[in-house]
Each structure stands twice: as structure tokens, then as C-alpha cells.
Amino acid sequence: MKQDLVLSNLHLRDLNPRICGREVCAPGHTFGPAVREYHLLHYVVRGTGVFRRAQAVYTLRAGDIFVIRPGESTVYAADQADPWEYIWVGFDCAPQFATLLDRDVIRLPSAGRSFAAMAGCSAAAQEWSICGQLYELFSQLAAGAGAGRAPQPDYVGRAINYIESNYSQPVRVEEIARSLGLSRNYFCRLFHQQTGFSPQAYLIEYRLARALQFLENGMTQAQAARQAGYPDVFAFSRMFRRRYGLPPGRYLEARGKPPHP
């Protein structure tokens, strides 16, 4: 038995639900290899199964969460004798949330209530209900995030602060890495591991999100493009359409907000 919730993409900036569902799997039921463009969490309600990512193989049971990050190829399969039932939720998230998902498997039986609430959402405003439950879930993850870990320099957090403070100016990945005392390759790998984005992709995403805010607050496209760090309105419009599927003016009209003349 499989239940899928059909969600609208609200394009929320910090925590944006994309999919949610629940499945009682048949013995040996396998999914993958598959790659996602968003974060995806599965909570095991009952039964057992196997989760594979790269060279790692995990045998999971009730109360476990397995984590799939953007761009990762994974396979998971229900046990033949005791097949699992799980609830899943997929979402886009800001780097501050992604840093709490650096483990492939998280043991968190208390999260069952949040996952059950997400899977049981009614159709009315279900995206917002799921978003609220995701915040509750991340509060539980944050509470145990530091247990047993030695403090590490927050390179990614510092890089994010730099990007969000300087996005309207020319920003080069090499300069950020150098300011942190890291090689470019190591910095890019670390940033992607913790956020699911490359530094350049995060910069683009942040600039577009800010530009959209500027447009919704009444700026012209040229003003929003310049304020968000784009050299001209044509480059901005091209990038905006690639991200949101429509040029800026039509996107605003579709949301009931006519563009500023």
C-alpha cells in the first residue's frame, strides 16, 4: 500500500516541502538506483530493510531515519521476512538545515510523531502543515547534533555569511576559499557535503531569492537585477527563467503581483 501527497511548490526559502508519502512495502521491494534534486528523509515505522549509498550499506529498523542528499545515488530495499513500512518527506532547505543532515542514518524514534503528522495532513494548507512539522523535526535534530563530536571550524557558515553579505558585488569562489585558508577544491567539496549546493550554485540561488523579494517589493527588473549583483537585466532574466520556469514579469503575474512598470 502506497500513499502519496500531492504538494504545491511554494518556493519557500528556508524550508520548502516538495513531496511526502507513506508506504507499506512488499517483501524485497526495492527502489533505485535513483538521484534526487532535493533532500529526502525516510522514517522507518516498522519492519526492517537495507539502505545503500556509495560503498556504505546500512540495515535499518523502526525508529531509524535514512538521509538522501541532493545529487546522491541511492538504493533501498525491504527485508524479505520483515518488510518495512516507512514515511518519507522531500524538501529544499537552507544550508543551516542541511548541516544537521550530515549523517546517512539517524537514530531518532521520537521523530515518529512528526513524520506521522506529515503523512496524515489533510489537503487544506497541507504544505504549511508539513513545513511546521519539518521545523519540529529539525528542532529534535539540532538538540542532539553536538553530542559526542569535537568542535570543528564552521567554514561553511562563515562562507555563507560572506556570500549573503556580498552577493550584490562580484563574488569569486577562489576568494572565499582563500579567506578561509582552504584550497578551492577542498572548500567546494566541504560546502557541497554540508549544504547540497556548490558555492556558486548557492550564490545563484541566494541572488535570485533576493531579486524576487526586490521585485515583489516594487522594484523594476533592472533595479532588482542590479541590486542582486547581476551585470544586466538580460543575464538576470535568463537565470531567473532557468530557476523558476518563467521570465520575471510573467512569474509575478502568475502569482497575482503585476510587475512594476
From TrEMBL:
Pfam families per the UniProt record, alphabetical: AraC_binding, HTH_18
Span of domain HTH araC/xylS-type: 157-254
Keyword line: DNA-binding, Transcription, Transcription regulation
MF (Gene Ontology): DNA-binding transcription factor activity; sequence-specific DNA binding
PANTHER family, A to Z: HTH-TYPE TRANSCRIPTIONAL ACTIVATOR RHAS-RELATED
Protein known as: AraC family transcriptional regulator
Protein's organism: Candidatus Avoscillospira stercorigallinarum
